[in-house]
Amino acid sequence: MIKEIFVLRSIGCLSIVLLHSIFIGIDSMTIREMGELSAIFFDSIQMILYYGTPMFIFISEFLIAYSYRNRELPDYFLKKRLRFILIPFLIMGIFYAIPFFAQGVQTGFTKIALNIFVGDYHGYFILIIFQFYLVHVLLHKKLKQWRPSVVLPIAFIINAAYLLFFNYSAPPEWLTYGEYIWERFYWVPMFGWVFYFAVGYYAGMYFESFSKFIRSWRVLFIIGPVLTSAMLLFLYHSGILTVHSSKRTDILIHTLMCSFFLFYITSSLKSLPPFLEFISRYSFGIYLLHYFYIFLLDALFQLYPLPIGFFYIIVLFIFSLTASIATIIVVNKWKYGYMIIGQIGAPYKSPH
Length: 352
What we know:
Blueprint: H1 3-28, H2 31-34, H3 36-48, H4 52-67, H5 77-95, H6 105-118, H7 124-145, H8 148-167, H9 178-183, H10 194-205, H11 207-216, H12 218-237, H13 251-267, H14 274-303, H15 311-331, H16 338-341
């Protein structure tokens, strides 16, 4: 029960919901309806919030490394995660493909295959963490022996080089499905996320030393998110790096700074904020469900538009968040509800 992880998980979850609310909200309204300055502002906020998904990679590996640092991985390690994480991913992949059957049966089944096998919906994150589950199973003994001062720079170089390649290159004309690979599929292979995995592993494995490191460099991590946010916005608005996703090279540093900032701030709290503890427990289901409710409300908005300007983004955020939580509560009353939208997490218990 590490309260810092509860906060990171909840903030990461809320950031993703807000990010997607902004994305759909801006797409649904014209600049005239929002106002040009409002559009630029929310577009910039969306860019800053891209730390959400990579933060979950860090959290996932941190928890595994911390939980099993003094004991062997149990035989049911992968089986448990298949049951509680992969099955909901598969079911929701099918669920999000249902509207595509309106375009034809073949289109619908093609979308199901894309969602499940190449993560062609927002649940692609699950395919990434399962790659790292396998890496942890295969290499955790080696990682424990290898020096973090060697592994972390190598992981950063691999990760940064991989993203730089796709950020600044175009697909070759001769490559079949090259455009799709450059626009979407390159998100899924673990090379675009391996640095977050490595940082999460060593932060969890050496938690006490990591906590001391955070406190020692607290000034850097307090101002860090401001500096990296400014860097992101400068590179984006200047046209130097126009990629609009979490798969930007500069997000590597931005995610690290935001994660460490939250770690430091939370470590100084005497108790865990109840709201963040609550969101953390429902975060997996919210992650899977929120886009459905954003799409649902947006479809209604297209039929019955209201002149509410940028407040529409706030409405999307609140509605998708609360509707997702309500659905999670109802579905989990069924014995096998967790297999559809994931289980509700255990409440935080203070170690003191």
